[in-house]
Amino acid sequence: MFGRLVGSATIGFARLVTGVRGNWQGCLPARKPRIYFANHASHGDFILVWTVFPSALRATARPVAARDYWNAGATRRFLAHNVFDAVLIDRESATRSVDPIGQMASALEAGSSLILFPEGTRNMGEEPLLPFKSGLFWLAKRQPDVEMVPVWIENLNRVMPKGEFLPVPFLCTVTFGAPLRLGPGEEKQAFLDRSRNALLALRPHEGDEG
Predict the structure, then answer these.
(1) Using CA atoms, how far apart are residues 195 and 116, in angstroms rounded to an integer?
(2) DSSP strand pairing (173-176 vs 147-154)
(3) Distances from the Cα of 150 to the Cαs of 8, 111, 147, 168, 204, in angstroms?
(4) SS3 196
(5) What is the pLDDT of residues 117-147, one digit of tens each?
(6) Which of 27, 30, 145, 150 shows its CA 20 to 30 Å from the CA of 53?
(7) Crossing angle for the helix pair 100-109 and 135-142, nearest 10 degrees?
(8) Looking at the DSSP assignment, which residues form a beta bridge with residue 21?
(9) 40-70 pLDDT, tens per residue?
């Protein structure tokens, strides 16, 4: 019960601070397992995606997040486990004992959708999008029938600039593109390039709103 109250408060706060709106440009919300893959500029990225989902979809959507960050401290741990039901993965391949692709595949098989960030780390540079890590390809190979929806988050890096503790009010948009799947015989780099281009295609052009 308390987790649901905190979740509602988080949604209200995110909407108040960012004025976030969802733009379902390439597909409609659907309560079925999907992989929503987005650009990554802030620790608050998945909260905005989660916030613009309809409530029925939000109930089954699970962010994929770094175990070391979200298990550091009681507050983050509570949010990860009791509010967002995050799939927490170990980023250090040398020390992890659980396969992260297996973790994500199991969540999809159980009926959840995933929110993940294929850049693998926050993009703090000038490039609009970092090269994708290979995990998106291996997950698509493991779950070839699951739709993969590109999601562009616009302006959150201005709401939560690096080094700032409190957010700065600024309008954000979350744009959902057309779903894609791994093609028959498609090679890893070709798939990663195609997925990355699908995400970049959602980026607003100079002079666009948002």
Answers:
(1) 13
(2) antiparallel
(3) 25, 19, 10, 26, 14
(4) helix
(5) 999 877 777 788 999 999 999 999 999 999 9
(6) 145
(7) 40
(8) 173
(9) 877 778 888 999 999 999 999 999 988 888 8
